[in-house]
Amino acid sequence: MANIDQNELAQMGAILAQVLDKDNNARKAAEAQLNEAKRNDADKYAAYMVSIIHPVAGANFSPEVKSLAAVIFRRNVSIVSVDTSDVKDASNNANLWDRLTDPARTFIKQAILEILQGTTAVNKNLNHKVCSLAVEMQGAMYKCENDTVW
């Protein structure tokens, strides 16, 4: 799971940047690409989303892109909020944590811990979003992994 292709990571970051675009058509196209990536390979999608947030792997991404990755991934793993981003395929909206393999879950947990350890006071907005993501992950772990506590 630790094999992150830098070109694919850059493409995922570019897609997230496009979601932030003011052009509605560009934004919708980017959202469709994210849904397709999540549908085709949930493990890879999740790994790339947390890699974008990571201070080392995601060093080239803007704080806005990192924040968006954290927010979208939080929605994907939330057991409280229902992800409705894929209107064409409701099964793709099912809890992402429940769909990940054990190696992917381990990778994501480790990456989030590294992100939290590397946080600084420089970007409090991003720190808040990563902490919210960690809380949602814990809820998903508890529900999907037989009451596992991180």
Write the layout of secondary structure elements.
Elements: H1 6-19, H2 24-40, H3 42-53, H4 63-77, H5 96-99, H6 102-117, H7 124-144
Helix pairs in contact: 1-2, 1-3, 2-3, 3-4, 3-6, 4-7, 6-7
How would you sum up this structure, described in words?
There is one protein chain. The chain has 150 residues and is mostly helical. It has a single domain, classed as Serine Threonine Protein Phosphatase 5, Tetratricopeptide repeat (Alpha Horseshoe), CATH 1.25.40. Helix content is 66%, strand content 0%. It is built from 7 helices and no strands. The longest helix has 21 residues. The model has no long low-confidence stretch (mean pLDDT 87).
Rounded average pLDDT = 87
Order of helices and strands: HHHHHHH
- Range of helix content: 55-70%
Strand content: under 5%
What is the overall number of helices?
7
CATH class: Mainly Alpha
Q: Mind summarizing the main beta sheet?
A: none
Task: Summarize this entry quickly.
The chain contains 7 helices and no strands. The protein is mainly alpha-helical and 150 residues long.
